[in-house]
Amino acid sequence: TGPALINCGRTLIGKLPEKNQQGELHYFNTLPPSVKTLLDNIQAKMFLVGNPMIVKHNEVAPAQHEMSPIFCVSNASADSNVLF
Questions:
Q1: 51 within 8 A of 80, measured Cβ to Cβ
Q2: Whole-prediction pTM
Q3: Nearest to 67 by CA among 76, 45, 75, 48
Q4: Which residues on neighbouring strands pair with residue 28, listed in sequence order?
Q5: Rounded CA gap, 70 and 67, in Å?
Q6: Cα 21 to Cα 84: distance, rounded to the nearest angstrom
Q7: Integer Cα distance of 26 and 71 in angstroms
Q8: Is 26 exposed, middle or buried (0-12, 13-18, 19+ CB in 10 A)?
Q9: SS3 call for 67
């Protein structure tokens, strides 16, 4: 264990992530324009069939994105997830 791990709880100096996949490219970054367009189109279609979507964001892994229906009672949520 090095001093950085002891003092900070993580290593501060080390190898770059594989394929240069830094965290700022993922979860908290804005959606790429092509992905945003796709998710906006899906959201509009889902609204037309009565399944409003609320969550749209990047996932931690590269090129993965999430979209989720609005939370509601469990039986309606299950139906929404199946429809989606």
A1: yes
A2: 0.62
A3: 45
A4: none
A5: 10
A6: 29
A7: 24
A8: middle
A9: strand
Q: Residue holding tokens 């830094």?
A: 22
DSSP 63: T
Amino acid at 84: F
CA angle, 34 as apex, 33 and 35 as ends, to 5°?
90
- Give the CA distances from residue 25 to residues 2, 60, 66, 80, in Å, rounded to whole numbers and listed in that order: 28, 9, 15, 30
Residues 7-52 have pLDDT tens digits of 777 666 666 556 555 555 566 778 889 999 999 999 999 899 888 8
Query: What φ, ψ does residue 66 adopt, rounded to 5°?
Result: -125, 145
